[in-house]
From TrEMBL:
It comes from Thiothrix caldifontis. InterPro entries: Quino_amine_DH_bsu, UCP028101, WD40/YVTN_repeat-like_dom_sf. This is DUF1513 domain-containing protein.
Amino acid sequence: MNRRAFLLLTTAGTFGAALGVNKLMKLTSAATPCATILYSASDNPAGGHFLTRLDIASGTTDSQAVPFRGHGMLPLHDGRVILFGRRPGFECAVVNWSNGMQRIPATAGHHFDGHGCLSAQGDVLFTTENHFDAKRGVLGIRDSQTFQHLGEYDTFGLDPHEVQLMPDGKTLVVANGGIETHPDFGRRKLNLDTMQPSLVYIDAASGKKIDEYRLPDRYLSIRHLIATADGNVGVALQYEGDLYRQQPASLVAWQERGGDLQLLDISTADVARFSGYMADLAYDPQQHILAVSSPRGNHTSFWSTREHRFLHAHPLPEPSGIAFLADKQQFLVSDATGGIHTFPSTLQPASASLLHHYPDTLWDNHVVLS
């Protein structure tokens, strides 16, 4: 971060209070024991875009129209919810369920890349962004109340997609997808021959790189991640190689705190069903089960992080968002046909149960519990 950005943070009174912290906030990757509200981006059959709030118990929904297709979400402590833009996103939406919507514009030469997180005190918002002309991945830094842009950190890689705060409250973990894009070329991938995905740990107070990890297969784009309360990290991967010639060794990786980033074992026949594409993740810390959705493969998969291997998978139509209901020991999964399903968290194969169905709602990307 440059000197001007540092002075802005200091002047705003947020740098020391929000980034040099002792008190931890709830991690967005861990469901609260009695979560009752689900948030998700959604579409309707006419092509409208929304942020939808769902009461899990009653099934009632409330939707706010938004001007773009959303991706990740972040509930704020005051009840507002940020919906992050992607594909590419030149704005984010902050939804206040009683007062409508506020827009957060991207800074000049940047676009949002789908996700964000708060500092431990909740005063600072970090957003994954692409500084496209400079070919740099950055974390935008904003005041979480006013959304004033205060500065940025380098992510030490291209295409940062997801960022989460680690349980120490001091470290950010970033999934750099490694893919170069530019709005002038739409969603075209410009550097597949040289792409270098990485998982990077960054000091939240200074922007200094703490550690960086890469997988042996550079065609495995590191897209989504989950940080557990124990400091472990799960990673969902998307394969940019030629699936007709070769299947990837795996599409899910796991990193024990202080260890290496390792692919979880799976057979070639099993990995083929996921069509090279994994999306959202959720984790059961008691059973050590990682659940990962594959919308292109039309399956929800379950993996043992204790045994470092694939367990089983179950067909669903374009499963996208996934979360863990700790009080029920279940995984909740949304799909593109309007279904909300639950799976028991078990090492053995088990069928999904349909919890709710909304035929005019196409659930998208991710779900977040609150």
